[in-house]
TrEMBL record:
Name of the protein in its database record: Lipocalin-like domain-containing protein
Domain of life, per lineage: Bacteria
Organism of this sequence: Pedobacter fastidiosus
Amino acid sequence: MKRQITFLSLLFLVTTGLFSCKKDTESTKARIMGKWTVNKIVITGNTTDAANGTFTYGKTSDYMEFKSNDDDQVELSLSGQRTIGTYVGTQDSFNMAFPEEGASYCTINSLTENVLQFTAKVDKTNLVKVYYLSR
């Protein structure tokens, strides 16, 4: 009888352990994590008209990578210039910050396995950037 109780207890612990170690695939952070190709960025609200408009990218060197490290880094590489910032994911949005630009409040417009489109409003400015990314 003791062996049966011990066996059932051990089976229960192993089963509980297996089902509790589920991978996080539902959070915004988990879904945006990884490397994305930057296809284009539409910029509005800039004080100089030359900096407004649609900027087309799409080369392999044009990417945004949301890293899964402890620092929650985001790396943006456009036309060979690389910038590293941070990001924090919430329910349907996330915030990111780059040193030269400051904080941006990002709202996800579209998120699938292969497409990420989001609108980033730069804090304390009228600057709005819409990012079109793909994998």
